[in-house]
Queue: 2 jobs
Job 1
Amino acid sequence: MKAGLLTFYHLHHYGAILQAAATQRALETLGWECETIDYFVNQDTRIFRPAASPSLAASDAYNALHYPAVRRRWQRFEDFSRSFLRLTDRRYESREELRRAELPYDLLVSGSDQIWNPTIFPDRRFDPVFFGAFSPLRKIAYAPSFGVARLPEGMEEELKGYLEGFSHLSVREVSGREIVREASGREAAVVLDPTLLLTAAEWSALAADPALREKEYILCYGISRSGALEPYIRRLAEETELPVVQLCGTRRKLHPKARMISDAGPAEFLGLFQRAAYVCTNSFHGTVFSVLFQRPFFTAVAPAELQEPERSRTFSLLSRLGLTERVVGKGDAAGLRDRPDWAAAEVRLAAARAGAMAYLKAALADEPYQGTEAALPREDGPLLADRTHCTGCSACAAACPKDAIALVRDREGFAFPQVDLEKCVRCGICTRTCPMLQEREPRPLPAAFAAWNREADIRRDSSSGGAFSALADYVLEGGGVVFGAALDGKQHLRHTACFRKEDLWRLRGAKYVQSDLEGVFREVRKCLETRQVLFSGTPCQVDGLYRYLGRRPENLTTCDLVCHGVPSPGVWEDMARYIEKKRGRELQTVRFRNKVEGWKNSHFTAVYDDGTVDTHPLYETEYGRAFGRALFLRPCCHRCPYACMNRPGDFTLGDLWGLRPDELPEQQQLGVSLLLVNTPHGSHIFGQLPLNCRPFPVERAIAGNPRLASPTVQPADRAAFFAAYALEPFDQVARKFCALPPLPVRAAGKVLSPEAKAKVKKVLKRG
């Protein structure tokens, strides 16, 4: 039996050619003859190409300067193809040529790599050839990738038509399975990348000695800017005193003393990984071969993959193997010298490999495949929200009847639930309490108001219009208690109970850091037994309280905030120590949004223990600048389900941004609150509040406060910040990531148009 393989191999890319060789060998082990169809499209492997763009001109210039090494690399790829790939006798350059050809195959295999990615072809459409849409032969798919988390709009029907010709479907990533399901209604097996079907011993037989003078080395292989890998490379080099060898990939040095390897072909690529002491990579196949050769490695992924790991090919693989802690720039990343658990990973890899081969065997024989992905072995603990969804609301810990859950800070400085399995009785209460695991009921649109406090002193002491104080006064006057966030003497933000108006000042004002809720929900429940309670917090905290209580008590009033996202408590506390160190005195209190120059020019004001005061515009301070860029928000904030008009609180409070100059002109300097009334209970109380109010269009409230419509976008350098934060002294991290740009850059920023800024950023990224 003979199969024709449709895949990428021409492009002189290590992963492409090695996966093609691995697919061919896997079919041969199952008794099939396999031939790679030499279809050449959109793949120019010439050393010098027409300089149609500045980047191609730069590439040609580099190749000319390093011609001997570049030429050796080119020849080594060609030699590897001839030695280890069985190709068709002729090259095909179009679908029509293939349609007319008399192909000697029993079936066609759409192989791995991003052959089903519509965005990489010149017309940004699917290439029908890679779906075998030139032949009536039976077709199967082994591990193709779409290369995108979601299809471009309007392409589902086209994909559905192409998939109808397949008797068996598989994909490389979980996201691919979802794309297939949504487009065609069919289920696709998620199988391993073909390179993982071969063992380390089999790959070693294809490896060539890279002929390095270094016996031990740190191997760096980056296909893009190093970003989050930089501190790992630097610290590994410092602590191990090993030389750094960089395999190009990217031609920018990832370490100032790196030895650049420009002439490695696929066999030398294997040899470099096989002999490395450590590997730092942002390549998927760099990760794969680190795993296969069991090299201690760190890998970086794109920001979108960190935000949605369920749609990432790297996370898809490492989750299967129990090695996700090797991904840098997140809170559960491994320590610098931590060793992977290779024994456990090998067991998981062997099981995944067996499942993938079982699929391939069934597909080749045209037999039903009933296999399912093997469930990941895990400790017998409760189901809780994963790290990209967990808000840290503490509801699970508060609800646990055995006190088996504690909130513990990770490497990013955020608290996550940690379960003591010896105490846990598997009752499931925490799972049923977790807001992220429950459906939220939709609500009608709230009523929106512009609001401001009638007392000038209170309004002056508030971040916006002082609406919170009016609500708090109402509850306190009725003998109730108010729970809100307050900083202590060490600048730790914690929710606390306020019983007197005189103490309410501690709860006023914006605090740009996530508050500590340890023990607070239980305290709220106890207070509810005897009095009214007002709880103010972020939407996730308010929803967490309701889930913990299991009801909406009549004597509980809640106020959620229009939330930009919550910054790391660990980062803020380190920033506070950094400020103290620079000034040589201790902080007594901080105002994140002080109206010393009016509502629209908020100041960051620091008061020290000797009575001295610093005050600067918020976004001209290191912390304010980084907060404005959303540099260190909690992971879940970038996919927040509460960034919408379906609010959990009775009230929502924020700043009424977006007022025109002619609207409430006499009030704008003093501050105006946006007040949303979300529930009948809130409406009942609203009519009794001593506030000046004006109705305001909901659509304009959303326009002025985008977080009422969508979450804050994750910045590209978030992972780089937290990778550095995990390894380096904070003062170095702050200087690198939080400092103001040089004066010429700031001046340019004020005069350049948004379009010009975008072009400059694009050029800098290419560099």
Job 2
Amino acid sequence: MRKNRSSTDTEDIAKSDANIPKLYNVIGDYYINKMYGYSDEMDTMVSDNVLSLMLDDFSMKFRIVDTNISEIEEFDYSIRTFDTNELVESGDRKKVDGDILDLRLSSLMEENKEYFLQLRLYTKEKTFNYYTRIIRSDIDFAKKLIDMANTFSNNNFDSNNARENAMYLESDGTGNARGLEYVTLKSDYEMMSYNGMKLTPSEKEVKLVNYNGKIGEIHFSYTADADGKSYNIEENFICKAGSQRLYMLDYTRTMNQRLSKSLQYAKKIDLGIGNRATNIISSKSGEKLAFLADNKLFLSDSKNGKLELVYTGGNNDCILPLKFGDSLYFLSYGYNVDDTHIGDVGVSLLKYGWDSKKVSKLAFVKVDVDAASLKESINELAYMVDGGMLYLKLLDKVVGLDIASGSYVTVAENLEYGKYSISQDKSLLSWNVGDGLNIYNFATGENKQLDNANEVMLPIGYIGSDLVVAIESQNVSSTINGKSAGNIFEKLSIYNNLLELQKDYTYDNRYIDNIKVSGNRVHIDLYQYDGTNFTRAGEDTIISNKSVKNDSRVSFYTDNFRGKNYVIDSTKYIESEVSYAKELSIDSSNTLYNIELNGAYLQKMYYVYINSKLAGIYDEPVKAIEDAYADMGFVRRNGIMVYVKAMVETLANTNFDVTQAADYVHYWENDRLTRFEGITLKEAMYFITIKKPVFTFTAINNPVIIIAYDSKTVTVYDINTASIQKIDINEAQSIFNNTQNDFSCFFTFRM
């Protein structure tokens, strides 16, 4: 568990981060939590999914790897609180004497409370910044969790030992649809034990993600080999202490085949287990096809019968093919995307010339946000047009980069979730500007406005190039318990790409909400209004006969091990061997963009992590909590843990001081409580677990505070009657549902 094998083949054109020192948190014999150094100072989100442990003697130890120790001169550190950013402790710069950094900390840090550690390494030329959450908790139990997870993982490689894991399985026939590429506790015994594959695993990279002394989340990543093939495997464990033994609350394993020179192909290119090809683009003639698999960019040419491996991503960056022109243009984005920007986060624009067989860099966009946040933005929008104009979404703004001149323009900024929409092919952007809409066509560079008198318009989504617009009601506002509950709509309108109205949809005496565009369908919920409240009154689906792009080149077959192997159709036979691009050629005159981004925008967002990886970013907490609850994930905002399903106790008590009830009413009236309107009572129980009383309503104008619960009852403090009441838990669910599950509690988010 000390070092993973190299994840790239020598023939691949991958970025090397060998000249960036890495750090491991040292816990006894284990080196866990591999941390990468950043050239810039980063915000708290960079530490969301890594947690390091303080030892019993109030020290922390970190091991330096992947570097020449003699080149590192000094180090220092600082520790801050997440909620107030208060400096708790700092260490003066000290000389580095070996590969172990020993931090002797004070006893100021509370037990089982998370803090933010920034550790800096100084070389002669650069400073590298490392970040982790830290906690003082039960070290011995953390080691037991790692040992248990490691034993479970190793047992699965031996069919005899794997039977010891059977007691953890929850097989119900629902867990086998994706075969070996995605295994959970609901999968059957054969899938859990690799169905007879004779795999030899490498050493594991271990990451501690969450821990509170009783429950821990651990992530493994490693490779395993069998029959001349190699596979990337990741495992995520959530375990809990029991009176007699440790319990596994959740387990997820993903597996995909590593692609190298052994890639098999004919008319269909076999990508192996778990490698569903993504981001497929083709030339106008259809002869050239670029696709991404195993974080590698491939180019097939059916005319010349060639298959080429163009580019290989690193451990912390992504690749996105953009367009065909005189060359294949693509992006590499994330952390440390090439050796000329060591430790930076950003976006590289590259091109591959199929005649020269050379990859060249055209531009680099440097940003000062964490790689995960950048990836979410780029995945939303990246579009390149003829003439060298590249459009990117960077957090809450969209910029257009003129590669030829080195200049850029801001197309849109201050974009808010729910108030902008991007077409499926990424060529169109629409966003709300007060009452009307702006519509920008990236392909033509045209900017148009859509503004109907006395109508507040929101872009909901695209069906092809047709824009679905929701018209907000002007006659009634959507309120719950005296607070705004967001927009309610009275009409849907669909416009074509010339902004010509195609059709309006209205429903007599009913209002529209929860509008979702999926493919060529628009799903809506209908509501009736009684003068005070809205009640759901049905649903409708609008179906368009407009065709929506659906690439049918990707298919799959199931092998003897019940592994789902993906193939991509190149339309013609490819006869020659796989070739590789020449080494990356860096043009020292490539264009560099330093674009200032709105860091405050990210501090307001809710980050959802599932299986220890970022799964989504939302501006409202309800959707984030719903996603985390469904998949045993967790939610963080600006470094603060907002929700984690695994840590909900079977019973909890906040020890609420009833003299503080007036404060909660004041917080509610002045919008100082974080509102979770719409989550379920079961989801709200997490807040009671972490000693946060929940403000809610049992009837209109009847506020109560949930202060405790057990398996049968919920205990509330009724503010109007100044009394404590116990309510049957099933009755409570019904009561709170009738008042729209309008839960709120107090969080302090540093801004």
